[in-house]
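# step 3/5: fold
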Amino acid sequence: MSLVRHIDLVLLRAFVAVAQTGSISAAAGQLHLTQGAISQQVKRLEAFFACKLLERDSRGAQLTAQGVEFLPKARRLLDLNDSLCASMAGATITEILRIGIPYDMAGAYLAPVLKAFSQAYPHVEVIVVSGSSVDLMSDFAKGLIDLIIRQCPEAESTEERLALAPLVWLASAEDVFTQRPLPLCFVTPTCAFRPVVFSRLAEADIGWRVIFENASVDTTLATVQSGLALTPWLRPLVPDGFRVLGTEAGLPSLPDFAIELHVPQHASEDAQGMATLIRQHISGVYG
């Protein structure tokens, strides 16, 4: 008869916190423990399973292949534990659904989806994770997010495509587009638009310089509105009060971008419900 083994949930919570934050120090702050305590808990979990779950280097903590496979299972076990404890304490059982949305599509753009979902699934707490499509894909692959919307060049689209949108140059009323090198700003260093923008500018023999990256849509738009730089933007998401430029301004044309929906093969009923609402909303917006 095999010996029954019991997983220490404290160790699981430390591991998940490190995976979500990307570092021992950030996980320590989240769980209100010392870095040494978090490190020891992760080591004990690795010893329990006799495998390496995390690699530590100057960039922080990275999941190993076994860590990537283990993470969603660890999260499910913790969610079940928390739901069971809440239920036995007489609290309302709340499930958690994590969705990843690109920075420029978060906020008001998807507010109708979140409102409709909360009405249809009042027992589910939705956590919206905003980021670049590159970062969201990475977190989705690690099991940190339940479903995501991804923006990518049409030629790179491989998953369920919800819409196709032209990428354009966004500018203010000032003639900043005549400056050389061309001043640019992006929401993040991992912005999905960067590689194609740099490639098209290089093909057109136009020099450029990046003056701003800050992970804020509002600040990026304010930088453009102030006439300090241009930024690439999806045409349907262009706010009022901005100029859209193209080849008539001496700028290279930019490709269409696909808007994809990534949902796990065995998604929960909640995730499938959210996916359906997202499909309906984007279909209505893009016609």
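# step 4/5: annotate
The domain at 9-67 is CATH 1.10.10.10 (Arc Repressor Mutant, subunit A).
# step 5/5: archive (pending)
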